[in-house]
Amino acid sequence: MRRQYKQKAQFSKIAKERIVLLLEEAEKVYPEHPHLSHRYVELARKIGTKNKVRIPSLLQRKFCKHCYKFLMPGKNVRVRTHPGYVVYHCLECKGTMRYPYRKEQKAKKKS
Ligand SMILES: [Zn+2]
């Protein structure tokens, strides 16, 4: 039993590494092959759901949570800042996502 648990932990570690690699690769290929980067996002999400691994929050911003297309600032996403949060407008599906940045603001107040 113990061995199984260990194996599981290893699998999720590998899965996480693959997700990071896929999303990095998606960013690289986007200028030439945007459809490929959308495919990489799909693969990364599949790996995540199969292995029950969460995609790191910073990487979650790299794709649209509505249509799951890869987002490249200046190409298919409009990024606007507001006090306390950032808004991402996906130009593929016209969806919006809000990301608060309270932590950074708290740090600023302290200093
Ligand atoms: Zn979208």
Q: Can you tell me about this structure?
A:
- By secondary structure, the protein is an alpha+beta fold.
- It has a single domain (2-110), classed as Single alpha-helices involved in coiled-coils or other helix-helix interfaces, CATH 1.20.5.
- It is built from 4 helices and 3 strands.
- Strands 1-2-3 form a 3-stranded antiparallel beta sheet, with no helix packed on it.
- A hairpin with a 5-residue loop joins strand 2 and strand 3.
- It starts with a helix and ends with a helix.
- The structure holds zinc ion.
- Residues 64, 66-67, 69, 90, 92-93, 95 line the site of zinc ion.
Features:
111 residues, alpha+beta, Single alpha-helices involved in coiled-coils or other helix-helix interfaces, three-stranded antiparallel sheet, 4 helices, 3 strands, 53% helix, binds zinc ion
Element layout with pairings:
Layout: H1 2-29, H2 34-51, H3 57-60, E1 77-82, E2 85-90, E3 96-100, H4 102-110
Antiparallel strand pairs: 1-2, 2-3
Helix pairs in contact: 1-2
Tell me briefly what this model is:
This protein is an alpha+beta fold. The protein has helices at residues 2-29, 34-51, 57-60, 102-110, and strands at residues 77-82, 85-90, 96-100. A hairpin with a 2-residue loop joins strand 1 and strand 2.
The level 1 CATH classification is Mainly Alpha
Q: What's the end-to-end separation, in Å? A: 50 Å
Bound compounds, please? zinc ion
Query: CATH homologous superfamily?
Result: Immunoglobulin FC, subunit C
Care to count the β-strands? Answer: 3
What's the number of helices?
A: 4
